[in-house]
Amino acid sequence: MCINFLTVGKKTLEEHFDVLVNSPGEWADEVYQDYPAPIIVARRSGQRAVVAAGYGMVPRRHIPADMKHYSTMNARTETIAERPSYALPWQQGQLCLVPMHAYYEPNWETGSAVRWRIGQADAAPFAVAGLYRSWQEADGSRAFSFTQLTVNADQHPLMKRFHRPEDEKRSLVIIPRAGYDDWLNCRDPRRARAYLQAHPAEMMMAVPDPKPATAKLQRQAEDLNGSLF
Fold first, then answer.
1. Mean pLDDT across the chain
2. For residue 221, is pLDDT > 70?
3. In the predicted model, is pLDDT for residue 211 greater than 70?
4. In which band, very low, low, confident or very high, does the pLDDT at 66 lie, cut at 50, 70 and 90?
5. Number of folded domains in the chain?
6. What is the Cα–Cα distance from 17 to 12, expressed in whole angstroms?
7. CB–CB of 5/103 below 8 Å?
8. In a domain, 80, yes or no
């Protein structure tokens, strides 16, 4: 499960992802839960568009005060059609791409959590499969939120190295560049599942990157481990 990632800037969106950025929205370089980040969606015409959306399918502000907090930053593809947080957007084909430079996972091989940076072997930006929805806010405005899709990675040569030894291993789904438009315009949930595969390990890189990590961030990684809805 990914709890934070390095997003891309407007220049990269236009030059690498071939999408014009008209939105005035701003976002941080490193994104955590409820932070805004750019996602790529398909217009009715089929063309790509960028919207700023909050990281986490159900924003904290929309979780009732008397309900226990739960994380919706990552969605298990095996149960996505059944979970209330994701079922309707999944059925309606509200698919998106989450562009990024890298994402972070905890590695426990030393006996304690060490933050590792994961990305493409060639260091190029890439896009992760996502699902999004819109929200009507109290002031009458409309906001967007998204989640990232994950698959089992117990046998993946790279991704099986992350999270606690006793936990199931998970991996984000990286969509190949040639498949961006097919993914974005897919409206058949059964056909969409064909894209939900772990990325080949030989096309990825992972290195320890503990410098920005603090005890607080490590505790967050531990607390969120396994809390997928």
1. 89
2. no
3. no
4. confident
5. 1
6. 7
7. yes
8. yes
163 lies in which domain range?
Answer: 5-224
- 141-194, pLDDT tens digit by residue? 899 999 999 999 999 999 999 999 999 999 999 999 999 999 999 999 999 999
The answer to whether position 92 is within a domain reads yes
Distance of CA 103 to the CA centre of its chain: 9
Structural domain contains residue 66: yes
Say which CATH number the domain at 188 has. Answer: 3.90.1680.10
Tell me the two tokens of residue 226.
């396994």
Structural domain contains residue 95: yes
CA distance 58 to 72: 6
Q: Residue 49, Cβ neighbours under 10 Å: how many?
A: 16
Name the percent of the chain lying above pLDDT 70: 90
- Alpha-carbon torsion (44, 50, 54, 56), positive or negative: positive
Strand-strand pairing, 48-55 and 5-6: unpaired
Whole-prediction pTM: 0.89
Q: Are 97 and 39 in contact (CB under 8 A)?
A: yes
In the numeric block, which tokens belong to residue 92? Answer: 């309606």
